[in-house]
Amino acid sequence: DIQMTQSPSSLSASVGDSVTITCRATQTINTQYLNWYQQRPGKAPKLLIYATDTLQSGVPSRFSGSGSGTDFTLTISSLQPDDFATYHCQQSYGNPPTFGGGTKVEVK
Amino acid sequence: HLVESGGGLVKPGGSLRLSCAASGFNFGDYYMTWIRQAPGKGLQWLSYISRNGDTIYYADSVRGRFTVSRDNARKSMYLQMNSLRADDTAIYYCARDQVLPAGDAFDLWGQGTVVTVSS
Q1: Cβ A108 vs Cβ A19: under 8 Å
Q2: Tens-digit pLDDT profile for residues B14-71
Q3: CA–CA gap between residue B107 and residue B45 (Å, rounded)
Q4: Which of B42, B101, B104 sits opposite A92 (nearest CB)?
Q5: Which residue from B27, B17, B111, B113 is spatially nearest to B76, judged by alpha carbons?
Q6: Which residues of A touch B43 (CB under 8 A)?
Q7: CA distance A48 to A69
C-alpha cells in the first residue's frame, strides 16, 4: 500500500496567516491522483482540491495545491475563520486508496 | 445528498448492516465507496463498488467480514458487517467516487453513522 504522511500533524495560526501543509507518499504518484479534503469538527470531509492543484467547485481561491513525485503541498494564503479544520491528503494512484493522518489547523 | 443509517452499539462478533441513501443525482452513474474514521484517527478507505455492482474491492482489514452491495433502483448502497471487532468502532461514511479525466476523488460525502463495538 502507498503510505501518506502529512506534516505537521497540527499547527496553530491566526486569521490572515499563510499556512502550508505537506503530504509525502512512499512512492511516486501521478499528480492526477492526489486529492485534499477539509474536515470541520463534527462534520464529514469535503473535497477541496483534486488532481493536485484543481480547486473543487465553490472552493475559495486562497486554497492552492502543488507538488509532484512523492511530495505535495496544500497552501492557504490568508487563513479565514472558516478554515480552522483538519486537512487530509489522499492518493488514488495505488489500490487501496489511502489517506494521510490529517493536519489540524487550530487558532493561535 | 447522501444519508447513512444503521449504525449503533453491537457486541464483538456481532453484525450490523449500514445503508446509504442517495438523492439529487443519478446514483447509477457513479462508483460508490465506504470510508471510516476511528475516534481521533484518520480516514480509512474500506470498499468500492462499481456502477452496476460487478466490480468490488475491499481493504484487507475488512475483506471476508464486510460485504458491499447496491440497489440502483432504490438509489442505495449497503455495507453488511459481520464478525465485528472493537477496532471496527468508527464513524462510517459513504461517499461518491467521481471518476475524473484521470484519477478519481470522493466528491460527495454523507454525514456518517456511528458504529460502536463493545461488550
Answers
A1: no
A2: 999 999 999 999 999 999 999 999 999 999 999 999 999 999 999 999 999 999 999 9
A3: 14
A4: B104
A5: B27
A6: 37, 45, 88, 90, 99, 102
A7: 20
